[in-house]
Amino acid sequence: MDQLAKNILKHSEDKTFSALAEHLQNNSELLARQDSQSLDNLIEALDVSQQSLGVLAILCAKVHLSSVGEFQLLLDQVTTFTTFYDGEQISYARVTFASLYHQFTKVAVKQGKALCAINVLKMAIDKYRTAPTKLTSLHADLVQLCLAAKCVRPVLPYLDQDVDDFILEGSSSESSEHIVRYYYYGGLVYTLVRNYQRAVLFFTVCLSTPASAISAIMLEAYKKYVLVSLLKQGKVSALPKYTSHVVDRYVKPLCGMYNEIAKVYSSYEVSKVTAVIDKYAEPLTRDNNLGLAKRVLASLYHRNVQKLTKTFLTLSLSDMTSRLKLQDVRQAEKYTLEMIESKEIFATIDHSNGMVSFHDNPEKYNGPLMADYIDEEMRKCIEIEKKLASFDQQIAVDQKFIQRMLGGSSTYEDDSFYTDEGLM
After folding, report:
1. Cα dihedral sign, 129-131-137-142
2. How far is it, in rounded angstroms, from Cα 178 to Cα 167?
3. Among 229, 205, 227, CA closest to 218
4. CB atoms within 10 A of CB 175
5. HEC string of 268-337?
6. Per-block mean pLDDT, blocks of 10 residues, the chain (424 long)
């Protein structure tokens, strides 16, 4: 270990970082055999800003130990490293760098310290990524920590930022795993905060990520996708055409009860949906989806109320109770008030005679706020168009793409470039 420390100091002083990265890789087994105290002593002997590669290798070895020692000490060490590491040195060991935070996340979750680790991951992502629109493999770890800590507010700014490129390490399968995890966890977060539009988007990306085999995450994502789609749009839309064949062939058949809920939901009959949810209450509970399924049932009442607004200008609460097959007038009033508050409908309730009056949307879409909103959306569309043009130019000069186009058939059918394997 003394000789390893000397080599770290020498290579760092000579700035031969490539050789140092290779040397540390060759000595990874030596580090893995040390206990946490020996590794702590070695870390103390090094300066993070000057010997970033050495500290990274030692910390990575420590977080993979069966016993990492006191978590607070590990947290302080990772925080110090994240704050002061030299980006030039880390560029020679990006896989090890990512592995440190992946394993650190697992340790934090396992020890129930997820909340303490959130700020470290935020700092690591902000320092590592080259732009806010770049997705790193560390993003999935941050979302996982927030979910484990039941504190999702810190990750929302990262999830709200649309992605236009990836900064991923390792093999294509490992990179795909991190993308799938990020969008699945992100979908869970948006479901928790009831932003169903973004939740549907994230579960869609999770399911349409290229894959050649079924995974547990894709299976769970499809279950959530069905329920959240019903909450958002009252139906389950078809997935994109480029979605892997494994979803149709293997995932959907394994989610029969969710497909049945979606089918029955389309009838708009509360009694039928209630019966199906009661029928599958036990498996839904095992999937941790019973609460979400009950939200779906509640949303059906809302949709039925919306149907009434297209037929009636005024309606008594008692008549509404009868038409919606509710328990009593108070339940009808409750759903009406909820929908008025969320602006799903525009109505007033006259308690003197128990009548509900439905109104048109008062928004005329001609105010300054709406003009600002339209300008912002147009700006986003222009930016997207520029990015698409840039991607098109990059693909046009890509050697692999050119070779496939010149060497393949005149049609795109059966071209492996467009299959799951080609996209991986």
Report:
1. positive
2. 11
3. 205
4. 16
5. CCHHHHHHHHHHCHHHHHHCCCHHHHHHHHHHHHHHHHHHHHCCCCEEEHHHHHHHHCCCCHHHHHHHHH
6. 85 90 90 90 91 94 90 95 94 93 95 95 94 92 96 96 83 82 96 95 93 87 96 92 88 92 93 94 95 93 88 90 87 89 89 89 83 90 88 86 72 40 36
What's the pLDDT tens digit per position in 52-89?
A: 999 999 999 999 998 888 999 999 999 999 999 999 99
Q: Angle at CA 408, nearest 5°, toward 404 and 413?
A: 105
**Residue 157 is which amino acid?**
P
What are the residue ranges spanned by the domains of the chain? 1-128, 374-424
Instruction: Please tell me the distance from the alpha carbon of residue 295 to that of residue 347, in angstroms, as a whole number.
Output: 23
Q: How far apart are CA 98 and CA 308, in angstroms?
A: 54
Residue type at 26 in one-letter notation:
N
- What tokens appear for 367 in the block? 């105010």
Tokens representing 59?
């910390």
